[in-house]
Amino acid sequence: MGLYENMLILRPDMESEEETEVLNNLEETITKNGGSVIKVVDWHKRKLAYEINKHKEGHYYLVYFDAPGTIIPEVEHYFRVTDAIIRFMIVSADKSDLDAVGGEEHVPAGEVEDVAAEEEKTAGEESEVSKDEQPTSETTEQSAEGTADQLEEEEKTD
Q1: Where do runs of H (alpha helix) occur along 34-136?
Q2: Which of 23, 73, 86, 89 is most buried when burial is the number of CB atoms within 10 A of its CB?
Q3: Whose CA is closest to 31, among 67, 77, 76?
Q4: Is the dihedral of CA 102, 40, 127, 125 positive or negative?
Q5: By residue range, what is the domain housing residue 6?
Q6: CA distance 124 to 130
Q7: pTM, whole model, 2 decimals?
């Protein structure tokens, strides 16, 4: 069995229920053929590099699955017959690729990880830390005075 990374782009005009159905059907196709879905990551809607079937944006999903190599034609067939999928790509992956997106827990397709929410949470935590590290007004005044003194000295040397 090998680890595979699958990037797929869904039509942007789909409802979330329809997207969940497509992802559930993909998971069903993989498990029916002897594989297992490890992780599904939602990359949200993004602008496409070029227009595809009159769509200028698409909803991106990254799916990691473990399966025998013989499953790839079956999964690709599912992608080709599903009108909701406008592009897809399957590549062989390794554990480091999976670790880069946050671990190896199984996430059912109906409970897709929200990358943007995680990024917002991380950004919020970083801003709290930076608030604690901000200089006081006294320190800021001192550094401003130091800068003014340095500028005066530079002007004198010129």
Answers
A1: 72-81, 95-100, 115-133
A2: 23
A3: 67
A4: negative
A5: 2-111
A6: 10
A7: 0.61
